[in-house]
Amino acid sequence: MTKILRKFISYFTISGLVYYLFLVVEIISLYFSEFGFDLTNGILFSFSQIPAVINFGVFIALILVTAELIKEKIPVSKFFQFGLILSLIFGGLIFLLSNSMVPKLRMTSFLDRYENTRKEPFTSQERIEKATEYNKTNVDMMSIGLINQYSDSLETENKSQKKIISDLFKKIPDSIIQSDFSKTELNEYGISKNELTTEFNRRDLFQLKNEIRKNTLLTKQLRKSNWTKNTRYLNSFLTLFLVCFAIVIGANFKNQLIFSLVCIGIVIYSQTLTLLTTSSDYFINGENLLGLIFKFTIILVVFLYLVYRMKTKNNTGANKV
Predict the structure, then answer these.
(1) Within a 13 Å sphere around the CA of 66, how many CA atoms are in the beta-carbon half?
(2) Distance between CA atoms of 91 and 104, rounded to whole angstroms?
(3) Which residues cross the membrane (predicted)?
(4) In whole angstroms, what is the distance from residue 167 CA to residue 22 CA?
(5) How many Å apart are CA 68 and CA 254, to the nearest integer?
(6) CB neighbour list of residue 18: distance below 8 Å, 6 or more residues apart
(7) pLDDT higher than threshold 70 for residue 186
């Protein structure tokens, strides 16, 4: 276990730093038109991506450690025991950072960009007021406690708006409802036929459409707040999955070059990030369900195949890939 730890620390440090430096370069180039070559902003904004940096470092390091030390007849179970400890430590660390430091860094970076856009620095009081203002509406800059409060207020407002919409629908004739509103909207608000024929106030129809637009935006905000909160937990559990994935990759490809192992790790990790992005599209916007299912299935099939291949090799006593 000590040998595994020593190797892991060295690989984790190198892979994590390389990934972080890549993020710094990417951020500097992305905001070059706004800030010029601003190393401070690049470092600050990139550090808000620390959960991804940690998970990448753990993933790549454990692939390399497993591939290197499994040749020394260390049992696979030892790597899984070590990985479980890692996932508990780093998973907890990721959650704490995501819920405390990361929101503050995002707020600082956002205010810096705001200052640059207005070409005038905030006073200390203005900066505090702006931070307080955006902390009430931007879930990326909230702790989970604040997100829960924000979600509760959105839920209350959502119920109130749905009641207004339902009452307005009762004032509109069926013929207008069927021609102006989709079945999805009618099902969303539980609308059934009413007894009205043709007499109605056009102002009610205008207000109804306006309330539906407002409620659609409100529902999206509620979904985003819930997804942001769940992502904080998901990133912690993702550490455990990546640990297991790294071990089976290292065990299956132990005779490959370090460069090849790193490339395999980068491909798998990038696909995992793509899966998270697709999940965000679905849970916030209700889009791309098929894409989400497809990407999840691909990653799961690859993982299960590597697990099966590793177990088969262990059972047959094969030692070469």
Answers:
(1) 30
(2) 20
(3) 12-32, 44-67, 79-97, 233-251, 258-277, 289-308
(4) 55
(5) 6
(6) none
(7) no
Six-digit token pair at 72? 């020394």
Burial letters for 72-83: b for 16+ Cβ neighbours within 10 Å, e otherwise? eebebeebeebb
- Say if residue 145's pLDDT is above 50: yes
- Is the pLDDT confidence value at 179 over 70? no
The tokens for 201 are 């106030």
Q: Which of 95, 45, 105 is nearest to 235 (CA)?
A: 95
DSSP letter for each residue of 167-202? HHHTTS-HHHHHHHS-HHHHHHTT----S--S---H
Q: How far apart are the first and last CA of the chain?
A: 24
What pLDDT does residue 319 have? 47
Average pLDDT of 221-246? 93
Query: How many other CB atoms sit within 10 Å of the CB of residue 161?
Result: 17
Residue 257 has pLDDT above 50, yes or no: yes
User: How many other CB atoms are there within 10 angstroms of residue 148's CB atom?
Assistant: 14
Residues 191/212, Cβ–Cβ less than 8 Å? no
Q: Is 19 left (phi over 0), alpha (psi -120 to 50) or beta?
A: alpha
Model pLDDT, residue 303: 95
Q: How far apart are CA 64 and CA 153, in angstroms?
A: 48
More confident residue, 318 or 75: 75
Take residue 259 and report the two structure tokens written for it: 């460069």
